[in-house]
Amino acid sequence: MPKELYISERGMDLLERVIRSCPPEMTNGGLEAKKILFNLSRKKDPVKWSDLVATLPVEHFELSIFAHIQSIAEEKSVAEIDDLFIADYFGGSPHIDRVRGFVKYHDFSMTGDLHYEPKFLVSHILLPVQIVDVSEHGFVGVYHGNVDIIMKNLIPYVGESRLIEASATVLCHHSSIISVCSRYEVVDALMKAQFSSETFSSSCLGIKGAVIDHARMISFPWAKQAQKLFR
Fold first, then answer.
1. Cβ-Cβ contacts under 8 Å for 94 (sequence gap 6 or more)
2. How far apart, in Å, are the Cα atoms of 54 and each of 33, 66, 98, 216, 227?
3. Residue 135 in 3-state DSSP?
4. DSSP-derived pairing of the beta strands 138-144 and 148-156
5. Entry pTM
6. Contact call for residues 122 and 212 (beta carbons, < 8 A)
C-alpha cells in the first residue's frame, strides 16, 4: 500500500508563495485556490496532500499543476514534499517544460519586443535574484545564471518591503519577490536545476543582455487585486 503523501510546513509556504504570484487566469482554481493555500500555509504543520487537493476548486485536476507535482512525487517515491522539492519543480525542468509548452502556442510578435519570448519563459520560472537597487523602477535585481540578467520593477508582497535589504538574495516568480531566501540549499537546488536545463539556458542567452522590465511583462490590475486579498 503506498504511503500517505504529505507536504511539509516549508513546502506549503513556498508553494503558496509561488502560486500567489501567478495571474488568476493561469492558476488552477483561480483566486479561491490562492486563498485556500494561504490559509493552510499559516497552520505551520505538515498537511496531507490528499486533504489539500480535496479542498481546491480545480476543474480537470489531472491537467493541473497540483496533479503534476503529485505524479512527480509518486514517481520519486517521496513521502513528503518539502521546499527543496517545490523549488526543483518551479525552478527546474518540470515547470520550464510546462511554460515552454505555453509559449509554443502563443504569438508574442505584437509586443514589439524581439526578446519577449525568452523573457516570458525566464520570468515565469522561480529564480534566485540578488537585489542591487531600489529606484524609480522599484526593486532591481540580478539573476546570476549562465549570463547575468537585470530585472526591474520587482514587486514585494504587501508588508514585506522592509524585510528586503540591498544585496539580499530573494526568490522571484512572475514579477513578484515572493520571499527573502535564507536557505543556501534552496538557491543551490534552483541553480543546479536551471544550469541543467538546455531550454532555460537557451532562453537566458536569447535575452542577449536585454533588461527584463516587469512593468512591461505583466498587467498590474490583476497583481494589485491579488495582493489585496492577503493584507
1. 68, 69, 72, 88
2. 11, 11, 23, 37, 25
3. strand
4. antiparallel
5. 0.88
6. yes
Q: What pairs with residue 162 in β-bridges?
A: none
pLDDT digits (tens, 9 = 90+) for 12-27: 999 999 999 987 666 6
C-alpha cell at 213: 522590465
Neighbouring C-beta atoms of residue 158, cutoff 10 Å: 13
Show the cell assigned to 146.
549562465
Helix or strand (DSSP H, E) at 118: helix 116-123
Helix H or strand E segment including 76: none
Q: Tell me the C-alpha distance between 47 and 81, whole Å.
A: 10
- Nearest-CA neighbor of 190 among 202, 208, 172, 174? 172
The structural domains of the chain, with segments of one domain joined by +, span: 6-99, 114-228
85-140 pLDDT per residue, tens: 999 999 999 999 988 887 777 777 777 777 888 998 999 999 999 999 987 768 99
